[in-house]
Design a protein that fits this description.
Strand order of the largest sheet: 1-2
Number of strands: 2
Helix content: 55-70%
Number of helices: 6
Strand content: under 5%
Number of domains: 2
Shape: elongated
Radius of gyration: 24 Å
């Protein structure tokens, strides 16, 4: 007599696929995660982020979310509750992914000497100093795609305390110098 199984392998597989596709779709709509190309990997261990001047190896992190599924949602086919559940779970994973991303960015920028200590400094002055350490690219119209990502509380504080006209002028002058430097290097590369 064949062995009875109460597992629903096809259902579990379909649910895993659905949840993966929903999460990938929601990540694409996130203003930070949506800009990052993702590649599935099947390995463990560490990854080398920076080789010099200081080596930075990072371990892959397991992201985990505890969830509760009410059986009534299934029995009553409560789509609204299921959608809220999936959305909440994906948001929790996205939060962990962004935290890991910013930790890695912090490690790599410090390792290559591209971080600026803003402790005790006026943010707008520190921003001008940071611009000096950035390598930037500009399009044919002079536009750059460099973005500043801030915690919402920090962004709100900065909106309440805008740069002075002198700081704004210094910023524009520093940005103009970066643009000229970029185009000068680009012209030099074509000639060689």
């Amino acid at each position: 007599m064949p062995k009875l199984s109460f597992s629903l392998q096809k259902y579990d597989s379909a649910m895993a696929k659905l949840l993966g596709e929903v999460k990938a779709g929601l990540d694409k709509t996130d203003e930070i995660l949506g800009q990052i190309q993702t590649v599935p990997v099947v390995h463990g261990g560490s990854m080398r982020q920076v080789s010099e001047p200081k080596i930075v190896d990072t371990e892959m992190k397991l992201h985990r979310v505890e969830v509760v599924i009410e059986l009534d949602w299934y029995r009553k086919t409560d789509v609204d509750e299921f959608v809220a559940f999936v959305y909440g779970m994906c948001e929790a994973f996205a939060s962990q992914a962004k935290k890991a991303l910013f930790e890695m960015v912090s490690l790599t920028t410090e390792a290559i000497g591209n971080s600026v200590d803003v402790q005790g400094k006026n943010f707008w002055d520190a921003r001008i100093e940071m611009l000096g350490s950035l390598e930037m690219q500009f399009d044919e119209y002079g536009n750059h795609n460099t973005q500043l990502v801030l915690h919402p509380d920090t962004a709100r504080k900065l909106m309440e305390n805008p740069p002075t006209p002198e700081q704004q002028k210094r910023w524009e002058d520093a940005l103009k110098a970066k643009r000229e430097e970029y185009y000068a290097k680009k012209r030099t590369r074509r000639l060689s």
